[in-house]
Fold this protein.
Amino acid sequence: MEELVNKVAQVRKTLDSLFYKFTDEITASLTAVLTRENFILIGPPGTAKTMLVASTSKLLKARWFYRLLTKFTEVEEVIGPIDVVELLKGNVKRIYTNSIVEADFALLDEIFNASSAILNTMLTILNERVIYDGGSIIPVKTWTVFGATNRIPDEEELQALYDRFPLRVFTKYAEPDETENLIKAGLRLRRDLERLTPLMTMEEVKKLNEYVQSYVYENMDAIVRHISPIVASYLDHVVISNRTRVKVPLYVVSYLSVLGISPSDIDSATLRAATLKVLKYLVKDREDLSEYETFLTTHMPGNLSALYDMVNEIKALVANNALSIAREKIKEAYEILDKSIADPVVYRFFQVEIEEIKSTLDMLRSQL
């Protein structure tokens, strides 16, 4: 299993090198793949959602199905057309080749714009991985269904569909000052996409999925003991269904595998850190995302939470022209920051937050 964990970690690193500031999207999508979960990207068009699924499919040697859904999209465009030859013989059969039924991955773009007929079909695919076609129950081979949308549905009839995508990431456009780096990364991606060769196969993904599940069930008591208090505390900020809560241990161990941490190397610190990170992918909307950020700043290990408080205190001191006290506080903050950087678990999981704190401290120091 060590080899398979290394392979999926290499897939993540390769995708990270291709996309600009897409770490959450990449890590969450691969976590979904390892748990055979449905995953949705929410954000404006033109944020590389389709390219991510295309690239992942290449690296995993996966067959993928894509369809942009509108209210005019026919069911046949998703699950396949009626076989005319068979129909002339009096048999009603469907051609499933090149449809969602035969794909490893499916990307359904603007999924909430689909007709009610397609939405009903999608619910059975998302829930049961089957379609009810006439009098037959047809198994759907799709391993992971990716959704893409630029809006969160507020229509009651669409909530059931949205709830079937428990892992979610909100995408956004790059900032104006990031344009140069974005263009360079985008051009490299366009150039390199066709050159990508598989680093892993879907059979290997399935083996790793089985191993992760076995590990979670065999170590259930220890894993739940470390994870459940964090999830319970998070529920004061964000609502998570019972169905999703039950699967959090699977998400956490899959997330760690995506980072290259084998189940045999998992300890209490990595479990707790990974849980904090995975909770970001369980938000419902952008308001929940803000609640998550607040929750994270008060629950991070290695004195990082205290550092956030110190940064706010230093800002107030600078604003009130208490510069000598601010200098002492900044010195103290840097010392704590150095200790956090020296902690391998803290730095590995919270590198982005550490760099954010350091950047703010550097800015405040320049004002003194």
Notes: The chain has 17 helices and seven strands. The longest strand covers residues 144-149.
